[in-house]
Amino acid sequence: MRIEQSTNNNLVTLFIYLSIFINSFVFFTSPFEFYFGYLIYIILLPVFFKRYQISKQLLYIFSVLFITGLFNVFIGLNSTQQFFKVFTGLFLAYVFYYFVIIEYKIDIQRLFRWYLLGCYYSALIGLFQFFSFLLNFKYGYDYTWFLNKWGFIPGGNFGIRVNGLFGEPTYLAAVLSAAFFVSVLNITRKVPLYITRFKSLIIMIVYILSFSGLGQTGIFISVILLFINFGLFRYVVILIPVSFIIFNLLISYSSDFKDRYESTIDLFTNEKFVLGKTHGSSFILWNNYKVATKNFSENFLFGSGIGSHPIAFEKYSMGKHIKVKGFNLNSSDANSMFLRLLSETGLFGILIFIYLIVKFYIRKIPEIQSNHWIVSNALLVMILLNLFRQGHYFLNGFPFFVLLYYFNYYDYQTLINTSPSSTPTLQPIKT
Fold this sequence. Notes:
The protein contains 17 helices and four strands. Helix content is 65%, strand content 2%. The two termini are 28 Å apart. The relative contact order is 0.11. The protein has helices spanning 2-21, 36-51, 56-74, 80-103, 108-134, 138-141, 169-188, 197-209, 213-229, 236-253, 255-270, 280-298, 309-316, 337-344, 346-359, 372-389, 398-417; strands at 26-28, 34-35, 154-155, 159-160. The longest helix is centred in the first third of the chain and has 27 residues, at 108-134.
């Protein structure tokens, strides 16, 4: 019986992490893109629905989104097809990963270890991709021969931006971001946690080799959170000049970073666009910022409904006047989850997410020897990065990590409340 249960758990675990770490295979593109991860939902969701009930909290939130969404369809701010397509996908994704966590009896530490292990293997593939490029082994770095979404991404300081099995380097950086936080912590500690220093080093190297602006932001957020948790802000006098030096080095030796920085500053401060100079991704972010803020001003309370940003984009996009391929990209996801929530869910959605981040955050408390704060801060890095530059609601298993963030707090409170003392000493997780 135990062997059968273990086998089933291992199979479920494999399915879960395949849905997170492989997103470059699309079964079909019309009427929507059907990713590999969606197949996992179809296989496992019927099993989970038979075993468990849906969380009341999830039902309350999605009920509000459903009612307001239908109202926006009725008044013409959204289309019926677009609303039901996105709402159904979002609802099923959160329900699926909620069931996953319940399936494993809210064993957050175990699930987080598996995530880190998945990051390590993804990083190994990324490292193989990098060296294959240096050795001119095409089948080792260009995966279009078995992945039909994206393959080789040129750029960076070495001619390649590592993306592994992910659609693009930004996706890789987003998924690895929580693991990067743990890796930095491991390198600076006497005793590593969750994974070895070697695995941490591999993750850090590949994370940097993505040459992702999102990844660079993740490094900054990770350092800030470590400073907060270890009470190191007394060293801010050192941090500021060091940050200044690193910034100038990036400006001097990374043309990609320099172009992105300068074009972004010009756009957001002066609304200056120069064809051939303005970085495409900077313009896309700025354009969606304009669309989202305009749509929010018109529908500030509940937004224009789940899935409605493409319609707002058609109304307010500045890019429609620029006849350059690619400058109207991300019309469906706003290039930022914060901007998309602002546009589609208004003040309601933004406040829910802020509440989630603040309420369920765990800071390191020296008197309580628990690793829950590590999981909390690591996942916070990922959530903040997705809010900043990833507008997909359920790509790369994002709902899974949001729910892990919540249940990690729940697990932490349970441990504290069941302790015989008011300031319990919880045993650290062994590597």
